[in-house]
Design goal:
The structure is a single chain. The chain is of the alpha+beta class. Among the domains are: about 40-55 and about 280-375, conserved putative lor/sdh protein from methanococcus maripaludis s2 fold; about 60-65 and about 195-275, Beta Barrel (Elongation Factor Tu (Ef-tu), domain 3); about 105-160, Helix Hairpins (Orthogonal Bundle). The chain has helices at about 1-30, 105-130, 135-160, 210; strands spanning about 40-50, 50, 55-75, 80-85, 90, 95-100, 165, 170-175, 185, 190-205, 220-225, 230-245, 250-255, 270-275, 285, 290-295, 300-305, 310-320, 325-330, 335-340, 350-355, 360, 365, 375. The strands form five sheets. The protein has a six-stranded antiparallel beta sheet, with no helix packed on it. The protein has a six-stranded antiparallel barrel with strand order 3-10-13-12-11-14. It has a four-stranded antiparallel beta sheet with strand order 7-6-4-9, with no helix packed on it. The longest helix is centred in the N-terminal third of the chain and has 29 residues, at about 105-130. It starts with a helix and ends with a strand.
Amino acid sequence: MYMLNIMKHSVASFFVFILLLPFVQACSGEDGRGSGDAPSATPVAGYRLEPMDLSRHILISSQVEPVTVSHIAARMSGLITELHVQEGDAVRSGDLLARLDVEEETAELRRAEAQLEYAQARYQRIRELRERDAESAAAYEEARTGKQVAQNEVDLWRTRVGLGEVRAHKNGVITTKFVESGDAVSSNERLFRLADVTTLVTRIGVAERDVVQLEPGDPVTVRIDAFSGRDFRGSIRRIFPAAEDESRLITVEVEIDQDEADVHIRPGYLARVRLTTDHRPGVLTVPSESLLASGRDETFVYIIDEKDELKRMDVETGISRRNWTEIRAGLEPGDVVVGANPTNLQEDLYVRVTRWVGERVDGMPATMDNDLSSR
């Protein structure tokens, strides 16, 4: 009797379920995508189109240098008796840097000056006699020539005495001192290195495919390792006329703007120059992985529509740079496309976005950082 009651109860419950089944299906919706069917949506990565800077960026490192560096050499042999500058001293054109021993040359100068004084007196006396016809023309010419020779001798030894003074030939900073007081030097031996630090530059090697898109005056960004995280303005000062034989790179000289700098930039600091070539600001792009090809000249993507279904959209593409491809036609800003691995998908498939491709950092997708090439 007990088992009979259980069977009657089970049969009654089954008929109640059958009666309620149509009502449950109506509540869930005709397409079968009610709350209970949410897991049936295929998870995908999405990407929302926005204008992007797809310009080519190049990062090249080089050291800071003065625009010009020259060497000051001894103009005669001798001992250094005086030294007036050290490394780091700023000098102006004509400043005395060092003096060499010129005692012998000074003695010769005094002798020549004495001979000149005698020659001038003799010339004056013979000239007066010649004016009174008391002296021959030959004697007058001999006296005049002797005076001129004596004057030339004085000029010669005065010049040699002057060679003992080592002076700056232009404004600048002494960056290297090669000698000390008391050293013996020879003619043309380097004594100092003089740098013009009013203009600082960095010279970088740029590939020919990039240098053709650069012009003198183009702005650049310079980051110096000594001042971590700080950018300095710069501009292309000049582009060298030929490539280097070994590297095949063309030297580009970048001037660093110091007008607004509240820090002291020194020659030798490491600088990192950021160049922009092939300017393409504000273009629509998609992750290259979003693109599919159905034929030689047919490229398309899957758009996620307002019903979370995939729709095929043919597109016209432009350049590809790293992981991104330019879209010239077929899509609009704000469109959402499948951002990764679309090969196993199909049109009208119901999907849900579980992650977004290309989170932006400073206006540029984080995945575009690889667009920076460093040499």
